[in-house]
Amino acid sequence: MERFARTARRPTDGEGIVAREKHDRMLGYLAGRGGWTTATEVAEVLGVTPRSVRSYVTAVNTRTAPHDVVESGPNGYRLNADGYAVYRRRAASAFESETPRDRLYGLVRLLISAPSGIDVHETAQRLHVSESTVEGDLGRVRAMLADTALTLDRSGSTVTMAGGETERRRLLSRMFRDETDRGIVELEALQRAFAPNEFSPFKGELLEALTARGYYVNEYGIANVLLHIAIAIDRVTKDRPAEPADHAPRTPEVEAVAEDLARLVDAHFHVTLGEGDLVYLSYLLVTRVVTPGSGAPAEVLVDDYVNQDDLAAVRQAVDRAGREYLVDLSDEDFIVRLTLHVQNLIRRAQDQSYSRNPLTRSIKTSYPMIYELAVFIASQLQRHGSIIINDDEIAYIAMHVGAQLEQKARKEALLGSTIVSAGYYDMHEVLRRRVESQLGDVLDVRSVITRTDVDWAAIDTDLVLTTIEPPAPADGIVVIQPFLTAADVERVRTAVSRVRRSSRLSEITDELLQYFHPDLFLRNAHAEDEEGMIRLLGERMIAREIIDESYLTAAIERERMSSTAFTDTLAVPHAMAMTAHSTAIAIAVNETPMEWGGARVSVVALVAFSESGRAAFQTVFDQFVEVFSERSSVARIIRRSEDFAGFIDELVHVIDG
């Protein structure tokens, strides 16, 4: 038998960088899942084969040996918390040379820190790689600089980075976020990369100083500003002060925060920041991290802090959103505080220095209707400020909207309940007080029956809590002890969740299924990109006179503003205005996922809502996304939906649980 010698092909540096990004995405996904996840599921998310997933697992485990980052078993893969901590510490350290991407970022840092440039020959020796490898990395550096004001100049073997200090710092910031876990900045990583002293005490005293000045502090936004502060400290110690901050106005607020910042940086890091650094960093704190008026009533905020034009624009946007989506957002305190946020948002957008929001993806997936309201409000504010609002900033608006709606819905969401407790002195009253104390956040006690001859059929509340055994068990009846126990409380809460889910599923079964039609169902339909798929589905709707071309154009414009991939498997393109002739859903169920706004989706549902379908919009939209949020359910639907009838059967099966 002829024998062949096999030599494993070593990946190129470009392939190594791509692989590292896949590793990070895989680990981030497993971290979000928590439990066991199949190789097929991970492969679908990454857009690779299960075999590639296995190679990624081997690679990351080898990198952190003897600690395994990912555990393997008959049920697939899951994250090992200890191993993952090791991986993150190494990944966040000061740009190690372990992988091609680490080496690439290390090369960028050398260029940033060398005003007279670097020598290609010396750099190759320093990094223990060939000169051709360094040349290849320099090509990738040029690609990284394409959307910046930085360039690479070359004279013989010397390469110099040309451009301002501000742009250099922005590049450092971007690289650091890429190196950390999914862009979330951690204090320990900052300390390792840029500063010798601990950041936690500094952060604590900075927050105290800001709070003492009457500010609300956005804990989600401060991490990225701390990154800017850490980079500034590092650059100043290298005698690279910031340029004059012409675009950062020296308002009284900025001046006051600058005093605190100068004092704390000097005390904790023994560094004196120049005027340019102090003004710029304080401006970032004022516009990204804090909101004035902590504890002040709305009327005081309006008099002291609110711009009247911005207030009018927010009021108009909120009013239009409320009328369009049939929700009440008229609370004055909410509008004023949203305006304070929007004022800073406009300044950030004008500078194109947006705040990152680590909750963007989870808000989009878990609260699609609230996110949609935020998109609508953002679209109005874009016109007011002549700005562009990105997904992270939309998510911050959604947090304001969600908090307001949650506060209003809390009372409305309580389940009506009846207590059945045979009369004996005041035991039924004691039980009622106990129930209201322990379960008042989920139940509204509407009546108490103290008779033993109960007419069970006449009770019309959502839930019955009874100390008397009913004639037969029923879903809406929970037997409890006369003196409510902790076990009783847990069983009642479980019953509340079950009743609510049943109610939601009933709603979606009744309302959602009526919007599908065989002519609007596509199996394994492929398009070049998101707009192509929207048009493919939209043409089916136009043919049935459900929508016209203007609705299709509006759906594409909505997609351009913010991706409608609300889960890892589902995209729900739609227009913001409810101008369809009738309400319907055109759906494509594909075995091969397609790229959609940074995700890979297997199901695309173009939703058309008419004016008459306005009341159903919230229920249908939220519940539709909920049905497709569980990957195992989606996989079943994709696998068994050979035709429209099969799709409906599987959808009903998933809804019924």
Automatic annotation (TrEMBL):
PROSITE patterns: PRD_2, PTS_EIIA_TYPE_2
Domain PTS EIIA type-2: 514-657
Entry keyword set: Repeat
Domain PRD: 305-411
Xref: InterPro entries: BglG_antiterminators, PRD, PRD_sf, PTrfase/Anion_transptr, PTS_EIIA_type-2_dom, WH-like_DNA-bd_sf
PANTHER family per UniProt: CRYPTIC BETA-GLUCOSIDE BGL OPERON ANTITERMINATOR (PTHR30185), TRANSCRIPTIONAL REGULATOR MANR (PTHR30185:SF12)
Name of protein: Transcriptional antiterminator, BglG family
